[in-house]
Amino acid sequence: MRDAGLRLSRNDPRQYDELAGEWWRPDGAFAMLHWLAEARAAMVPPATRPDALLVDLGCGAGLLAPHLAGKGYRHVGVDLTRSALAQAAEHGVTVVNGDATAVPLADACADVVAAGELLEHVPDWRAAVAEACRLLRPGGLLVVDTLNDTALSRLIAVEIAERLPTVPRGIHDPRFFVDDRELVVECARHGVDLRVRGVRPGVPGLLRWLLRRVGGARTPGGGTPRIVPTWSTAVLYQGRGVRGG
Question: Of 59, 98, 104, 147, which is least surrounded by CB within 10 A?
Fold first, then answer.
């Protein structure tokens, strides 16, 4: 099912219905989303007040939920895809069927807003950023990760990755990739001081994982690849910022 996108236009949301059975397979079509969810959750500190709310924009099937366990947040997930939301609800997420550019939640309701692997799928990413910032309380935390709008990113995330068993074909439209400098400026317009850093999968873990995926090989020291910092934001990057008071 990793080729579902070949029957649809690039970035068509209906791909997620066709790939619904892949969400919670650790070595499935969405495996990298599991690695990124763990890295995203690592940027979220424990809640500092009762009833703290984390809004997860583009939550998919709730892959962030296991990594937030014990941190003290009420986890609300917003997504367009009902089949994904049904699975998120099974993992303890309070689900909202909605668009990330018009979220049906109140201003300043969230202690944390997470927008993981979302912005590169939104035709108007600036509107999604405006909504994310609107939802944050003063002092609230925004965490994001997305693909950069560079030739290298298009080469690696589309031309190469879609030829390997790493991402479903057609899942990205590189026209929507987000320049990291523009994202920082846009967040600042909405009162959030965003700091970004490059990230990538750790090479040894990624190679072992690819061997398992390609040939079912049993490799020593298997395990899950980890997302690690890197010096360049040219392909994949994380952002973490606080909304001013």
Answer: 104
